[in-house]
């Protein structure tokens, strides 16, 4: 299994060489770790799908260093997309645009659009600027599993199927980018994520649409994506303690709470109680590492306190809903 290497000048130079040779490089972004390949090299991009075990028709996001590269990838950049790029790039936003003719079908899943993002993580920025071509990168996890937020998660998931893992520490945002489709007129939200919709709408000066039947496919929109192996149950705050006590009568329980401390009367041997911050950005930062850690306990059930129904929590709520889907 490749040991993650420090993301210093030598590590980044090695990663750039590997990308140019058609290799697979895992690298940190501010959202989650990506599994990158040269987006203009078809065999290299194909290797991403086999390493992840991901269906070949699921499109990949192309990561760029600079908006000056946009004309290479997008046929046109409508005013709404330009406004969002100006406001949120580099950052946790992916824009779906009509694709330029040169973009490989293997990257777009054969669709006439392409997903583009300029990440803000300093390691990603140096890698992309040094490579100077687009890097196609999904999250660096096995298909359907929780996205990696540390280099160790990547190594545990992908092992020898990746040529190099750049270790840039734990990612900051902790959940994936927000995806906005700007290819069909009014911007549409395809995936909530690191940037909340109210901020997107404030930057646009208009409300955005919700996904509809014509929306381009997003693999994260499969109901069961982001699932731990332990069955997950989402429970309202006021029912949390009762649900945990009942589940502890039947087996062992891992709990992710948000608004409340562990009640003293719960059986310490049967209930593993973990409290995450009651603030969406700090919660998201810790969520995936916590899901992995609790999943490894092999409990009978994982019970997660439902997030508040507020827009700042939408990215987290989306991931929890999928984690709980069976
Ligand atoms: O934060 C992120 O977005 C991370 C980091 C590594 O950048 N990447 C990520 O990639 O989450 P992935 O492949 O795990 O999820 C990207 C989503 C997929 O659900 C894919 O279907 C969707 O973006 N996507 C990519 N290109 C698309 C397109 N042309 N049309 C519609 N959806 C697209
Ligand atoms: Mg993913």
If you had to describe this structure to a student in words, what would you say it looks like?
The chain is of the alpha/beta class and 326 residues long. Helix content is 32%, strand content 19%. The chain contains eleven helices and 15 strands. An eleven-stranded mixed sheet has the order 1-8-2-3-7-4-6-5-9-10-11, sandwiched between helices. The protein has a four-stranded parallel sheet with strand order 12-15-13-14, sandwiched between helices. Strand 9 and strand 10 form a beta hairpin. Helix 1 (9-20) crosses helix 6 (122-131). The longest helix has 16 residues, at 280-295. The mean pLDDT is 94. The chain binds threonylcarbamoyladenylate and magnesium ion. Magnesium ion binds at residues 138-139, 147, 220.
**Mean pLDDT across residues:** 94
Sheet/helix structural class: alpha/beta
Could you estimate the helical fraction of the residues in percent? 25-40%
Number of strands: 15
Euclidean distance between termini CA atoms? 31 Å
Oligomerization state of this entry? single chain
Counting DSSP H or I runs of 4 or more residues, the number of helices is 11
Strand content: 15-25%
Radius of gyration: 20 Å
**What spatial form do the alpha-carbon principal axes imply?**
globular
Instruction: Please write the string of helix (H) and strand (E) elements.
Output: EHEEHEHHEHEHEHEEEHEEHEEHEH
